[in-house]
Amino acid sequence: MKKTGPKAAPLQRSFQLLWMGDSISQLGATLMSFAMGVWVFQQTRSVTAFGNAILSATLPSMLVLPFAGGLVNHIGRKQMIVAVDSMLAIMTVILLLLLQLGKLQAVHLYAFNVAASAISALRWTAYQASVSSMVSHDNLGRANGLLGVSEKTLGLIAPLLAGLILELSGMSTVLGINVVVLFIGAILIISAFMHLEQKTAVPVPTEHSFGLALLRNIAEPVRFFRNEPLMLGLLVYSVLQTSLLTLCSVMLTPLVLANNGADQLGIIYTSAAFGSLAGLSLLVLFRNPPRMMLLAICADCVLSIGVLSIGFVISTPAYCFLAFIGIAAGSLAEGCNMTIWMRKVPSQHKVSVMAFVKMLMIATMATVVWGGGMFIDRYLAPAMLSGGALGQFMDNWSPDIGAGRAIALLFFMSGGISMALCILSFAYPGTRRLDLLVPDAVNR
């Protein structure tokens, strides 16, 4: 009893500090991401330009993630997180100076997104590895729920706050806030690692093991999925679902801004964040549901209905309601999927496999977002105009005009495809019963 108590307390304290530090840092990142998207779209009025901003913020991380595990293990988790946050703060200060001088352009934000995406991939890997080492296997579901709650709480606060800040004081205030919160978050993260016991620290490999670590982080995922084909099926399902729903989440901004201001967009995103908070709170309350995969499929089905329905509405209250219901279900499904990955992947392969999964998701999402924006600007939007090929056919369905109506059709199509994926996954017993058929990593 005397040995157990002292060892458990520092780990719990470390997790709390790490959680708080990351949450505060992500508050600034979420504010800035929302503000930058609005700024680019308002400056260009182009869905393609908006999609390019998203693409520049996602694609570089895909190139870094295959090597992220080896770099993090070589440099150290604490050093990596703090170094990335410091670099982000410096880059934000540069953007702030350009804005004050009246020289800030969309290309500067693209460049910022490229650099931030690349180094944030290293931060994400270090953070995921740190959380896994601080949380027991039985508490992974609850921990993922709690981490998701904090993330979605930021999503609840940030869009509304960013919209108000943009309307009242502009982009410079958002950039200044991001610098301050990055500094505070770094202090808390350093404190978190100071509370870790010596046995929880990851040994730093020698120079000779660095190259081997990079190669191992590429080979291990291939070996894991070869041995666990059902997990490969989960990967395909997760990548396709996440990509379709990310496309809709991204395109919600130009859809709303086609007829409304940034403040109303903030209200809609706040409603979505409330829904996300509700869905993840359910996961925390469930603690350890026995059929997580089945629960995830059912939740994704509800989300698909919400996405499809957005294509039929144009009012802000309707957007808020559908965003709340759909994102609540989607957050529950996302939490279940993440818990399944953490349970089924052995600890020695967890960093490399999770980085590989995220890399594929980013690659597919980036392709879908880029292609979706181009498809809307070049084909759907012209066809939706009065006299266009689809204009008369759509007149009784969506009274909106131009790009807004084209994006609404994209929501309808994406929701239908997502629903089909849910039905196929439910019909196949291997996917539906995956969490029962694949043994937990702790039992291997």
Q: How would you characterize the overall build of this protein?
A:
Helix content is 84%, strand content 0%. It has 444 residues and is an all-alpha fold. Helix 3 packs across helix 5, helix 6 runs antiparallel to helix 12 and helix 13 crosses helix 15. The N terminus is likely disordered.
Question: Which labels suit this protein?
Answer:
444 residues, Growth Hormone, Chain: A
Return the CATH class.
Answer: Mainly Alpha
Helix content: over 70%
Number of domains: 1
Shape: globular
Please report the number of helical segments.
17
Order of helices and strands: HHHHHHHHHHHHHHHHH
In CATH, the topology is named Growth Hormone, Chain: A
What is the CATH homology-level superfamily? MFS general substrate transporter like domains
Structural class: mainly alpha
Largest sheet: none
- Low-pLDDT stretches are 1-11, 197-208
In whole angstroms, how far apart are the ends?
Answer: 28 Å
Oligomer: single chain
The assigned CATH architecture is Up-down Bundle
Mean pLDDT equals 75
- What's the gyration radius in Å? 22 Å
How large is the share of residues in beta strands?
A: under 5%
Tell me how many strands there are.
0
Element layout with pairings:
Elements: H1 4-44, H2 47-56, H3 59-75, H4 77-100, H5 106-134, H6 140-168, H7 171-194, H8 207-227, H9 229-257, H10 262-286, H11 292-310, H12 316-344, H13 347-384, H14 391-394, H15 403-427, H16 429-432, H17 434-437
